[in-house]
Design a protein that fits this description.
It holds the Pfam family SBP_bac_1. It comes from Paenibacillus thalictri. The chain has 19 helices and twelve strands. The protein is of the alpha/beta class. The protein starts with 13 loop residues before the first helix and ends with a helix.
Length: 443
Amino acid sequence: MKRVVHIGLTAVVASGLLAGCGNKTETPAPAPAAGGNGQTAAKPFEGKKLTLVTANHPWGEAIKPLLPQFEEKTGIKVEVQSFFEDQLTQKLTVQFTSGAATPDVFMYRPLQEGKLFYKNGWVQPLDDYSKKDADYDFNDFNKTAVSTTTVDGKLAGIPIITEQEILYYRKDLLQKANIPVPKTLDELVDAVKKLHDPKSEMYGFVARGQRSPLITQVSSFLYSEGGDFMQGDKATVNTPEAIKAFTTYATLLKDYGPPGVLNMSWPQAIGIFAQGKVAFYTDANSIYQNATDPSKSTVADKVGFAVFPAGKAGSKPYNITSWGLSMNAKSANKDASWEFIKWATSKDVVLATQQKGNPGARQSVWDKPEGSTGFPAELATVIKESQKGGVDHDRPTVISVGEARDAVGAIVLKGITGEGDIKTAAETANKELQAIIDKDKGK
């Protein structure tokens, strides 16, 4: 999911990234204490410096005030550089292409650039690191979230932000019409029809309608009907299951959506829902505050949350890592870098950042009552339920992600505009997606 959150940290210029991070020698073990008495230093990485690159994201805001604790404990000085999401990939690509040793640690989107970064040898596999310390308890991480950060069987990053597609709905409208919360896609369609009243500026359904952004959200419709974008190296967006899912999504937007859906990504879609003009909305749980914050929403106290409705294959929303932490393969400070990643994704720190509304991937944190305090009670229940299964991707898992999203998105666009037959569009898109898969295999 493309999340652009313009808050907090200030973007820095590229030259800042290109700067070195100081000490270039690795410290494999704690240094002797001053005085030569054979004791070890209290701060095992005293004098080390790390460069951390983050997105301008609430997690970055949550971790920044905690850094002094880490620096005091380890002796490592952390320099933080932050970029808007649309700049981040470009900045990192420039760095890694040049073979730079910095940044040492960075935030990244596993499903958007993870495969590209790994295939190019830019990230350090973390499998051995994650198993070093039993207290780290890597098995505590949600298995599906870990699967998102795994490329070719190797752990390319550690999950820090998870995301699932859920159903947002208007509690008051359902109560007034005596309609139960839909548990299946068929029930959702029926409820949408009943509450759709365009003459009163009340629309039944809204979701992303832009060609590329819609892909991540139609994915849960696809999985719940028993389909997927790919099976191995074979494109499968022309199967009966896929055509049914694309048709349902397109029909909901075409027949029961508000005007202008073709121009809607998540900010526009949740914006009109927050204006009180839509009964149902499907999207990521992570953007819920746009609907529940009274300063942004006229229906803040009327919003309900539910698990994604079941299709023929059951309820199978995407359950992904939207943001992870990874290590530069050329970092001169790998042990210190892992020390930071281990700390930032430890149980205590995940609890602290999750209490600020950042949904993490540690099961033990979600199991604690205090782990849910950063979310509405109903939403916390839905998140926990959605994390039990789901699918570890929300788009085609290829290197050329942008091309693939555009190719598949055309199917839904044809259905929304009525300019073509969805089945024919699916056949065309399947050929295009297969060509992309074949091309990427040669990279």
